[in-house]
# Entry
Amino acid sequence: MGAVKNKKKPVWHDFIHLVRQVRLPWLLIAAAFALNLGRAVIALKIPEKIADITAVDPSGGSSAVAVAGLICLTLFLLALLEFVGGLIATYVTYLAKAGIDRDFQKIALEKVFRLQTTDVEERDPKEFISRITTDTEFISEFLIDLMVNEIPRLYFIISTLIKASQLGNGSLILAFLLVIPVIVIGSLWSGSVSFKAQSQVQNAVAALTAKLAEKVGHVETVKAYNMTEAEISEGDISIDEMKAAQKKTTRAAAFNTLISNILFIVPTLIIALTGASALLSGSVTVQQFITYFGLGSTYQTYIAEHLTLWVLAKKAQGATSRVSEMLLLPDETGGTGKAEGAGTLEFRNVCFSYGNKTILSDLSFTIEPGTKTAIVGRSGAGKSTILNLIEQFYRPDSGSILLDGREISGYEIRQYRDLFSYLPQNAPGFSGTVRDMMVYGSKKTHTDEELQELLNRVGMAESIAELGGLDYEVGTNASRLSGGQRQRLAVARMLLQDGKIVLADESTSALDMEGAGKISKLIDTYAGDKTRVIVSHHLSVVEDADQILVIDGGRLADHGTHEELIRRCEAYRALLNEGKEEDR
# Structure
């Protein structure tokens, strides 16, 4: 017999598991439920109370004017009930939903930042944002409708059918039952048209947004190749396609308005004509007719609302699958050991692949504490990957990485990372001020005087003062700063950290040789007594390193001092010659 395949758990199993992780605002949910149930109870009582008024008529009957007046009064009271009670119930319901939204989003957001780096890099960041925002709202919308609104709806619908059956006329309950398929068919038809039209416009908007984001983000390339007019024309085509989709949506909206009116008029006619026929034939009394018609007005509304639960359920079903898939991804893991200091760092036969591509092969080297190690090699050789492995952004496929003779995966990961002052490649920045960018990640409080002094040390005091000082807003992704400015500020941020090991990944790539030399000397001055691991394509700034690791095709070609490598390493000499060509 073959192996039995594990059946995928039903999506509602994931839904229940997900809900159990959320701290639901039970008090608000209970209040919203009570308010909605109260509305349903009152809506059942009002028609009967108004019908009782007609029984007091001293003439023993009721004129058509009186009946019409009472019907109008019924409708008015129902409308007033819907307005006042509905306003309060809706407000409390939305408060409850906001609480559920918040807790779902907290769970999703926390998960995203705890994921393994490889899982994050394999997906579009917009996908995670959609899980945190849109999908969590779909789930909470269904949950709040199910918990707060559904039982009051069912209570009213079932009670109405029971009351109709007690009127002693089979045609009346038949009319109520006939309303259901009319509303179901109309809603499904309307929903289908709406869904297709909305999907078309969403696809058109998504396509246009993607094209514009791609081309506007590289507008210099567009201009350099004189493709401005061509891109405008292509954009016009996309805009026309979106306009056509929007026209279909407009027609669908008009159609839905028509269907909505029909869904109100047809059930009302069915209820009214059936009741009127029974009244004229004498099979029901005026009081019974008023009760029946008053119940019917709210009944058809609740039937229509009940059908929306199915739509919400389908949205929640898809959203739950997507959110659960993300939540099931493994978190970053670490041990429980405490990293006491910055001892010897060692790679032993480390191999690492990204997807199907081998990045590092059988890599072994040792970095002694308090020394400066430079990592050099051509682009794509695997230099930055080494730093990513040290920081535990990635885990090796095989081999070992040790600190103080212990596998780094055995250390508690957050405490382990506190050992490092890390300067990533391309010096990324976030929106905020210059001050925010400098102190990001620092565990201490810094005065403006300290920050100004540091700006002076990295050669940024004058340019930052011209921009507006420490409170200058750097923009999204620090886009209002040049690459060199971002890099210098990133160096300043690194200098504020109190790490025992400095990891610098191409920390001078956006600077000229003179600027690169100054920043390199600044790092050496600041971190002269620390372990330094420097990745750089400016070989002149790492010539004084205690050891230089030459990485070629993911392997260690050689290691040694600058003088030793010049004598014996052909790959290093080639890099030096290439560097001289670039500097000319």
